[in-house]
Design goal:
0% strand; mainly alpha; 7 helices; single chain; 219 residues
């Protein structure tokens, strides 16, 4: 005669499989694009704070050293966005650690060891650009803002009250500026560039977690 535990095993297995399927469906579902521009504006702040520190420390703007990583992260699934931003944050934190322990100099652009940190930051900026393209916000490139300024200057609806794209472009420019000011101020401190990198990396990590809570796109 089968025991009560044996009879309950198929039910437990069925419930476990159902939860696993629901979790997979949730993670692989595309996120809604409503307010998806907000994480990208946060990325603009990260660009500003890292670029200001990198220019003062290494004499280069890291936002211009983007890598070709568009394809692997060119979708809007929750899990993809989470992994994308988590890896971006991890790359920045690796560079932050190397700078903090002085494996990479902060104030010697001629030192060859600087080349160790550049790929980590270049890759994550490339992944950042890939995310902005996948989410459909071409007006927020998140790195180089030349196109933003050009589009603002040539926008025939620049002074129209309701103009979402103009607002996003202006927001991107402001966030980069604020990040740049913060990065420039940190550069005056001991290990200031390292601190800028730690801040940028933690922001990216938090954004990766935030994508898991984003609403699902409505077909």
């Amino acid at each position: 005669m089968p025991s009560q535990a044996d009879e309950s095993t198929p039910l437990v297995t069925e419930q476990s499989n159902k939860r696993g399927k629901q979790l997979r469906t949730y993670l692989l579902a595309p996120v809604t694009l409503r307010h998806a521009d907000l994480p990208l504006l946060a990325c603009c702040f990260v660009t500003g704070i890292i670029d200001a520190g990198a220019y003062n420390a290494w004499g280069t703007f890291m936002g211009m050293q983007t890598a070709a990583v568009t394809r692997p992260f060119g979708n809007t699934r929750r899990l993809s966005l989470c992994i994308n931003f988590f890896l971006q944050g991890l790359s920045i934190l690796v560079a932050a650690m190397l700078v903090t322990i002085d494996a990479i100099p902060q104030n010697n652009a001629d030192n060859d060891r600087v080349l160790i940190g550049i790929p980590f930051l270049a890759w994550q900026f490339g992944a950042q650009v890939a995310a902005s393209r996948a989410l459909g916000y071409g007006e927020i490139p998140t790195t180089v803002l030349t196109s933003v300024y050009n589009d603002l200057a040539s926008d025939p609806r620049l002074w129209t009250w309701q103009n979402a794209k103009r607002n996003r472009r202006a927001g991107a420019a402001i966030m980069v500026l604020v990040g740049g000011i913060c990065g420039g101020w940190l550069s005056r401190l001991h290990n200031g560039f390292g601190m800028a990198l730690w801040i940028g990396g933690l922001i990216k990590m938090l954004l990766g977690i935030a994508w898991l809570g984003y609403g699902e796109a409505i077909e």
